[in-house]
Amino acid sequence: RYVFSWHCPDGPGLSCPFLIDTSGAYFRRDGIAGNYLGGMSPPEEDEPDPSDLSVDPDYFQEQLWPRLARRVPAFESLRVRGSWAGYYDYNTFDQNGVLGPHHRLENLFLAAGFSGHGLQHSPAAGRAVAELVLKGRYESLDLRRLGWARLVDREPLREGGV
Length: 162
What we know:
The protein is an alpha+beta fold. It has helices spanning 57-71, 118-135, 149-152; strands at 2-7, 19-20, 26-29, 35-39, 79-85, 98-101, 109-112. It has a five-stranded antiparallel β-sheet with strand order 2-3-4-1-5, with helices on one face. The chain has a two-stranded antiparallel sheet with strand order 6-7.
């Protein structure tokens, strides 16, 4: 996957949340100086070759920038600052994290497989694992549906936004 950074001094202000457009384009602010990070997942048939981590600059120009500018007109005048490519690694069973105690190994707790939405889920996942370790149960949020049992039972937890 490609991630791009750009500068747009007239872009959305500090109160702008992480935004995922209905087209799949996403962005967030990167600091307080009019800098942003963003990207978009390509359709499965257009996934880049995983053995090549070079960035295709045409992808930004042809695919991402038009969607960003349609969503945020100020992005018409953005200036790309950089880019990088990386792997989109995830739990291939259902693309959701696996959280909680292992079903066979006593005293092994998991918080893995979240990939792209791991950073978004990390505060809740960390708190949940801490509660399991310290109290032996979930207290704040019942996250049992993210547990190992769904893998053992072959019952995927589908999420439309992934």
